[in-house]
Design a protein that fits this description.
30% strand; four-stranded mixed beta sheet; Double Stranded RNA Binding Domain; alpha+beta; 2 helices; elongated
């Protein structure tokens, strides 16, 4: 599975953040990572220097093998919480999607 991290100009997207993001998202997706070809994370700071609650926006796009990409978003107070929340939402979404496909067979 390929992993790509994208950040806006208010979040410093260095190698350390990419490693942390990859670990959090991979752990959050669990067993589903083997069914994904690529995961892209987009992090933005909605309020920039102003601060505030739930101002970190995380958009997570997962590309399952042979299917269209799926996207979820999550807002939270800090980067790690936003990543965990988005990974949790994506896991629930993909579990549901794969479950529907398995029932049709």
């Amino acid at each position: 599975m390929q992993f790509q991290l994208n950040t806006d100009s208010h979040i410093h997207g260095d190698e350390r953040l990419a490693d942390i993001a990859s670990e959090i998202v991979t752990a959050g997706l669990g067993h589903l990572t083997s069914r994904l070809s690529r995961v892209e994370v987009y992090l933005t700071d909605a309020n920039a220097a102003k601060g505030g609650s739930d101002d970190i926006h995380c958009k997570l796009e997962a590309r399952p093998e042979g299917l269209k990409p799926h996207t979820v978003t999550h807002n939270d107070a800090n980067v790690e919480a936003a990543l965990r929340g988005a990974a949790r939402k994506m896991r629930a979404h993909l579990d549901s999607e794969f479950g529907k496909r398995a029932e049709r067979r």
